[in-house]
């Protein structure tokens, strides 16, 4: 018995077996229990077979891209001019620039297509006066620090006087 996830498409084998079971006279309910698929899926598959003569669903078309190359270049310029602009600000600017009414989700999709990612800068801790003094002291202590690999050459340099 083939177990199918309700969110995934049926495999070609399962579709053909559903059609075969229907042609042999098995009821939709028995077919659905045999292949562990909903009864509506069985009826849709049989209906599609009766209408088109094929068990496969019709290929889905991709949605037409609404932003042209010119619009993508404008979007890049808007993002480059202010890297910290919010999605709402970018959407408003692109709509006024191109004279369109894009939804923010559409603009977000195009921003990702262009290659930009939403990255949040790392939080840098606030340095208090005490921290600044400690860091300065640490730097002053190591101002004349000699690396261990340079100790021999610096000793030679000191004794050569």
What does this entry look like structurally?
With 161 residues, the chain is mainly α. Among the domains are: 1-59, Winged helix-like DNA-binding domain superfamily/Winged helix DNA-binding domain (Arc Repressor Mutant, subunit A), CATH 1.10.10; 69-114. It is built from 8 helices and no strands. α2 packs across α3. The chain starts with 11 loop residues before the first helix and ends with a helix. The model has no long low-confidence stretch (mean pLDDT 83).
Chart the SSEs and their pairings.
Layout: H1 12-23, H2 28-35, H3 39-52, H4 69-81, H5 87-98, H6 104-114, H7 129-141, H8 151-159
Helix pairs in contact: 1-3, 2-3, 4-5
Offer a concise description of the structure:
It contains eight helices and no strands. With 161 residues, it is mostly helical. The radius of gyration is 34 Å and the shape is elongated.
Radius of gyration: 34 Å
Question: How would you sum up the major sheet?
Answer: none
Number of helices: 8
The average pLDDT is 83
The CATH class designation of the domain at 1-59 is Mainly Alpha
List keywords for this structure.
161 residues, mainly alpha, Arc Repressor Mutant, subunit A, 8 helices, elongated
